[in-house]
């Protein structure tokens, strides 16, 4: 009996302690929100919840990605959950087939060719923005402007229209929080997503409705048109729901994977070129001899600009955006592999020449070396499906910035200190002032 009393007391104390810690945790980790604001929002569906803690038990179950996968297969890919009173939107992609559809209709070589015009237009806007900053003598945050460029371009490649300021804000939240969580297969956004949720849903509904009412001709169709066609087809091989199409725009890996990676890579490469003026000069000379002195660089020039390609490759080798990548049951330290002194001469030096294939080495040997030791885009099934598009983004931006402007920074050299753990970034984001170069300035000021 005595033993029973002690156990009962212990149990009681344990329950009290548990409840107390739950409340402490909630006060510490989750900000309180007012219910009326949430009721205003047009929220995604929500699974049954438990009193007080709401969906906390689901968020704490291990392994979390499996538990979320189970939830999304039961209730759909876009879910509204709560931990106590804190809102969470869970975005899970539906199926491999759906992912495949996205990748082939956006990143495949045929699609890249079809969307070249969009990238050309966005590049012109980017160049005009830089020209404007140069005229006003304003500093440029290279990474930030590159993220804007890639966001706008990917958005247009998907649905034929630009991102609004709001959308861009949402993507920026997604890229910060989502970066850590994408490995778990979830996207978790805080207050801001709930605030824009209703307006955002309305905007997406409007776009989808517009496309449904006026479908594009097949040859002019964007990814969104292909997805809507599959969504409407009951006999389609891979099922796509309306919610999945919406989920594509809030936190999908296409945006997370495509924007910050290109932004950071471009910043690192510009920093290396500013620190190595002789390489910057060589690159500029190559552009002038291949493209011409009176013509602005275009995507179709990239395949002829071998030194530019080598500069981009070397930037990706020294500063991989993902220093750690996971393969099936292994973790690979790409940073260490690409700086391994057994494979690379002077591995810590920025030397684009190493990617200019010397005639004595031959292409085969070079390719073997790259296959084994060059993995800035990961490798295998989990490797980056956007590697071609990423190289185009970075190559074009670097080519444009070097061809059209002279760059300067505060101080002698750019500080190359690294920051970040999951993703490698510059501890001191690259900010420069620029001057438009003659005679190209006259072309840029005439740009729209
Ligand atoms: C220079 C630019 C880029 C770099 C350095 C880069 C690098 C990477 C790396 C290393 C991974 C594998 C991550 C891992 O295994 O944990 C990855 C995955 C991915 N990337 Fe990229 N990427 C770039 C551009 C892009 C672009 C432009 C897109 C598309 C618009 C894109 C879409 C994706 C997607 C969807 C995944 C996830 C693949 C999966 O998990 O199955 N990336 N990227």
Give a written overview of the molecule:
Residues 186-213 form a coiled coil. It is a single chain. The chain is mainly α. It has two domains: 29-92, no CATH class; 96-445, Orthogonal Bundle (Cytochrome p450), CATH 1.10.630. It is built from 19 helices and nine strands. It has a three-stranded antiparallel sheet with strand order 3-9-6. Strands 1-2 form a two-stranded antiparallel sheet. The radius of gyration is 25 Å and the shape is globular. Mean pLDDT is 78; it is low at 1-6, 30-41 and 174-190. Protoporphyrin IX containing FE binds at residues 107, 154, 253-254, 257-258, 261-262, 265, 316, 321-322, 325-326, 376-378, 382-386, 389-390, 393-394.
Residue runs with pLDDT of under 50 for 5 or more positions? 1-6, 30-41, 174-190
Inertia-based shape:
globular
CATH level 4 superfamily of the largest domain: Cytochrome P450
The number of E-state strands comes to 9
Major β-sheet strand ordering: 3-9-6
Q: What is the straight-line distance between the termini?
A: 87 Å
Number of domains: 2
CATH architecture of the largest domain: Orthogonal Bundle
């Amino acid at each position: 009996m005595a033993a029973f009393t002690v156990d009962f007391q212990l149990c009681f104390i344990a329950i009290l302690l548990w409840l107390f810690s739950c409340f402490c945790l909630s006060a510490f980790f989750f900000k309180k929100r007012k219910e009326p604001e949430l009721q205003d929002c047009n929220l995604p569906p929500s699974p049954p919840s438990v009193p007080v803690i709401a969906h906390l038990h689901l968020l704490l179950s291990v392994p979390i990605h499996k538990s979320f996968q189970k939830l999304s297969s039961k209730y759909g890919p876009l879910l509204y959950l709560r931990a106590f009173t804190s809102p969470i939107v869970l975005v899970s992609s539906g199926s491999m087939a759906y992912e495949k559809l996205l990748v082939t209709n956006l990143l495949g070589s045929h699609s890249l060719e079809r969307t070249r015009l969009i990238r050309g237009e966005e590049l012109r806007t980017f160049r005009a923005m830089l020209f404007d900053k140069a005229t006003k003598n304003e500093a440029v945050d290279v990474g930030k402007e590159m993220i804007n460029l890639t966001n706008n371009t990917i958005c247009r490649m998907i649905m034929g229209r630009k991102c609004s300021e709001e959308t861009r804000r949402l993507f920026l939240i997604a890229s910060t929080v989502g970066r850590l969580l994408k490995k778990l297969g979830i996207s978790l956004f805080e207050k801001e997503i709930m605030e824009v949720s209703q307006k955002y849903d309305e905007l997406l509904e409007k776009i989808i409705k517009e496309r449904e009412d006026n479908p594009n001709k097949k040859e002019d169709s964007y990814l969104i048109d292909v997805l809507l066609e599959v969504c409407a087809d009951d006999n389609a091989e891979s099922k796509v729901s309306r919610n999945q199409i919406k989920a594509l725009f809030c936190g999908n890996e296409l945006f997370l994977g495509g924007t910050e990676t290109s932004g950071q890579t471009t910043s690192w490469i510009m920093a290396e070129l500013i620190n190595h003026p002789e390489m910057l000069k060589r690159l500029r000379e190559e552009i002038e001899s291949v493209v011409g002195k009176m013509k602005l660089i275009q995507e179709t020039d990239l395949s002829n600009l071998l030194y530019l390609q080598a500069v981009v490759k070397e930037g990706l080798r020294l500063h991989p955006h993902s220093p750690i990548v996971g393969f099936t049951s292994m973790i690979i330290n790409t940073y260490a592999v690409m700086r391994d002194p057994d494979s690379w001469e002077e591995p810590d030096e920025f030397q684009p020449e190493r990617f200019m294939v010397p005639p004595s080495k031959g292409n085969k040997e070079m390719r073997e070396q790259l296959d084994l030791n060059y993995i800035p885009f990961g490798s295998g099934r989990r490797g980056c499906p956007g590697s071609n598009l990423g190289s185009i983004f970075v190559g074009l931006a670097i080519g444009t910035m070097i061809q059209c402007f002279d760059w300067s920074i505060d101080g002698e050299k750019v500080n190359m200190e690294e920051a970040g753990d999951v993703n490698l970034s510059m501890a001191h984001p690259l900010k420069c002032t620029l001057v438009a170069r003659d005679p190209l300035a006259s072309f840029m000021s005439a740009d729209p």
